Recover the amino acids of this structure.
């Protein structure tokens, strides 16, 4: 990992991985806050408003950290990936610019209204502000996905005389079939994070016998949404996304599954360690013929293995790709099991007394973050060796005149900076959680937020 | 967009710079933060939007300038983060030690940011060593001379950086004086004459006069990022470009800069040549 290319890749990977801790939570929480606000508007029950206010404060801290760590992402296309920026700027700068408009202008202005305008604007405008924060975060997420989907499956462009890509159809870019399923898969992944976080915190309050009324509301909404989102994550969104990978990136599929040799009636591997040198899988536990069925809908279909493809087109880190994919799928399956069990107890009205499942819910909350990030690593390492699939190889995209030493210097700088940010983040989150939602009344909520932060929330 | 950024974020940068000097108690510093609190993040949006627009409109310029100014840009990013933390987290905890720490972080990062923004303008006006492939890379500093081995920081760009600090401080002092009252306001207003004097255009003129002949003599060439003819139609840029090309060297530069001065109605705006000079680097 001492070449300039490796360091530039690690630089981007580190900063985007850290960044994505925050947006996945804000995108996941935004619709849940809208649900609380809608319930408050419909029933007039003040407890729902209190819950919405509490989660808005959690949202605000995460949004701040998302913005702080998001700005370097926009800059890195130019600083670390200059040749890629020059090649693809004609296409992806369009969607990135639209993301900026929605993320910053729409989301941050309505977040200001949402955090400070409750007593001033009344319940209906306050509901609308919450709804617009949700729309802003989900639309800006869409433009990021559109950008990545173009790199995974480029459409709607032509290569101009100077060798750079130019957009020919904005609508083709927006309605890229890859973008649709990737978006749904990513967003429901964010919902899994948001809902398990909410359920986990509710379980924490119930287990520690504080804030129990709010804790029950958090667990109820969290478990309900987690059940829907984690199921949707497997089917249809995960399944359809897999179909696209099978169709357009068969090499990636083979590497993800650790399938070194083509097989008819290929099995799906649950556990095992790929050995790239000997081209085999150690200690495998598998389900026979399942991979053929999942990818081609026939038990006996042939699935192409890595041996069918030239070695210089293989993803360059097959073990990492394989493990991240299996971590994502494995955790996703466990989430479904937990959500089904908790949902069943909720339906039987036994959930709040069943401490064993509350413990499980509380301890589950970090894992959706891991699953989401493992999913992204699967997507981006799976795209290798291409930066833009089939068009631009990664080694032709980085800023070759920025030396390895300089890249390592700034990478270490970011690591130090983000260590400080992590400490501050955990400290602030802990304060909010310890303070809790119970005492946030309508009239002093705005005031107390204002006392805590002199600024408009972002 | 860069203009909007300099005008808007300029005053909260300036407010950050003076906050340690004119505000003496925690309450006064809190007042300054409250004055910029609701707006600073909105102002910062313009920087993000400007970077996005640059990428959108001129991918080659974005690619070459961002990677060429790699180190200073990364440092600017870190400073922006520190500053965001300083503004946002100060009031989360009621503790004087916590406040002191974040007041210092806020002011310190504001000063350094102003220096780096100024140095960026200095670099663009001075020019960068563009390679045949359209890219360049500048070290943070070399020998602090404006010569064949340029660094981001040399004596000229540092002077421009300090000028930016002074100009933005005036800008911020105006805003703080407008938004506050009492002792804080009196002290802020009292600091202004000396600050305004510090951005006297004649002194800047002096610095530039000595840079250009030296630069020309050593065959220092100016940024030509292939963007010179990308005419974007705005009045100031076109008028600068419309100056007769036959006029070479200092006389032409002075005329271009006088144009800027005519358009800059007060100190803070004098940092504006940045986008123009960058785009029309080859014309200079």
């Amino acid at each position: 990992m001492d070449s300039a290319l490796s360091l530039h890749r690690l630089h981007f990977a580190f900063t985007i991985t850290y960044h994505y801790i925050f947006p996945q939570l804000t995108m996941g929480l935004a619709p849940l806050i809208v649900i609380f606000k809608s319930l408050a508007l419909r029933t007039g029950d003040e407890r729902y408003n209190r819950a919405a206010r509490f989660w808005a404060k959690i949202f605000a801290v995460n949004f701040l950290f998302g913005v702080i760590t998001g700005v370097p992402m926009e800059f890195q296309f130019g600083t670390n990936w200059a040749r890629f920026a020059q090649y693809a700027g004609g296409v992806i700068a369009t969607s990135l610019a639209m993301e900026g408009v929605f993320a910053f202008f729409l989301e941050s202005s309505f977040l200001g209204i949402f955090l400070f305008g409750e007593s001033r604007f009344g319940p209906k405008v306050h509901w609308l502000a919450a709804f617009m924060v949700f729309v802003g975060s989900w639309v800006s997420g869409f433009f990021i996905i559109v950008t990545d989907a173009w790199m995974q499956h480029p459409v709607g462009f032509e290569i101009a005389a100077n060798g750079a890509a130019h957009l020919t159809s904005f609508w083709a870019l927006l309605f890229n079939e890859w973008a649709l399923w990737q978006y749904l898969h990513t967003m429901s992944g964010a919902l899994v994070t948001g809902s398990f976080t909410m359920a986990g915190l509710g379980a924490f309050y119930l287990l520690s016998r504080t804030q129990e009324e709010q804790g029950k509301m958090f667990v109820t909404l969290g478990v309900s949404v987690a059940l829907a989102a984690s199921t949707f994550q497997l089917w249809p969104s995960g399944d359809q996304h897999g179909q696209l990978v099978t169709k357009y990136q068969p090499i990636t599929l083979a590497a993800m599954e650790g399938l070194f040799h083509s097989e008819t009636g290929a099995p799906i591997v649950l556990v095992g360690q790929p050995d790239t040198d000997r081209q085999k899988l150690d200690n495998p536990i598998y389900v026979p013929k399942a991979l053929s069925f999942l990818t081609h809908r026939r038990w006996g279909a042939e699935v192409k293995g890595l041996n069918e493809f030239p070695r210089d087109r293989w993803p360059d880190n097959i073990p990492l790709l394989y493990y991240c994919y299996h971590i994502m799928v494995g955790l996703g399956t466990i989430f479904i099991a937990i959500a089904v069990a908790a949902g069943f107890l909720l339906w039987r009205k036994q959930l709040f007394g069943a401490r064993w499942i509350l413990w499980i819910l509380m301890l589950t909350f970090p894992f959706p973050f891991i699953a989401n990030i493992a999913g992204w690593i699967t997507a981006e390492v799976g795209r290798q060796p291409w930066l833009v699939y089939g068009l631009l190889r990664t080694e032709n995209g980085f800023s070759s005149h920025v030396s390895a030493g300089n890249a390592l210097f700034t990478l270490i700088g970011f690591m130090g900076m983000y260590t400080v940010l992590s400490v501050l983040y955990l400290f602030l989150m802990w304060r909010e959680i310890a303070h809790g939602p119970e005492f946030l009344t309508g009239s002093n909520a705005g005031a107390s937020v204002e006392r805590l932060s002199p600024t408009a929330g972002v | 967009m860069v203009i909007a950024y300099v005008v808007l974020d300029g005053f909260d940068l300036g407010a950050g710079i003076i906050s340690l000097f004119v505000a003496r108690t925690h309450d006064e510093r809190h007042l300054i933060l409250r004055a910029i609190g609701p707006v600073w993040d909105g102002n910062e949006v313009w920087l993000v939007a400007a970077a996005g627009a640059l990428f959108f409109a001129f991918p080659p310029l974005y690619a070459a300038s961002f990677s060429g100014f790699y180190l200073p840009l990364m440092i600017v990013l870190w400073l922006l983060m520190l500053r965001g933390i300083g503004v946002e987290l100060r009031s989360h905890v009621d503790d004087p030690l916590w406040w002191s720490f974040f007041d210092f972080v806020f002011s310190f990062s504001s000063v350094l940011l102003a220096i780096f923004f100024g140095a960026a303008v200095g670099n663009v006006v001075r020019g960068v060593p563009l390679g045949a492939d359209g890219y360049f890379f500048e070290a943070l500093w070399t020998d602090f001379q404006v010569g064949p081995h340029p660094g981001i920081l040399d004596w000229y760009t540092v002077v421009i950086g300090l000028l930016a600090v002074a100009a933005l401080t005036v800008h911020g002092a105006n805003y703080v004086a407008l938004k506050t009252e009492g002792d804080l306001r009196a002290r802020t207003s009292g600091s202004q004459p000396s600050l305004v004097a510090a951005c006297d255009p004649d002194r800047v003129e002096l610095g530039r006069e000595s840079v250009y002949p030296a630069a020309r003599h050593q065959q220092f060439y100016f940024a030509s990022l292939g963007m010179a003819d990308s005419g974007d139609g705005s009045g100031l840029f076109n008028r600068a470009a419309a100056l007769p090309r036959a006029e070479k060297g200092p006389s032409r530069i002075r005329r271009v800069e006088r144009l800027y001065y005519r358009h800059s109605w007060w100190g803070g705006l004098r940092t504006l040549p940045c986008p123009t000079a960058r785009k029309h680097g080859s014309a200079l």
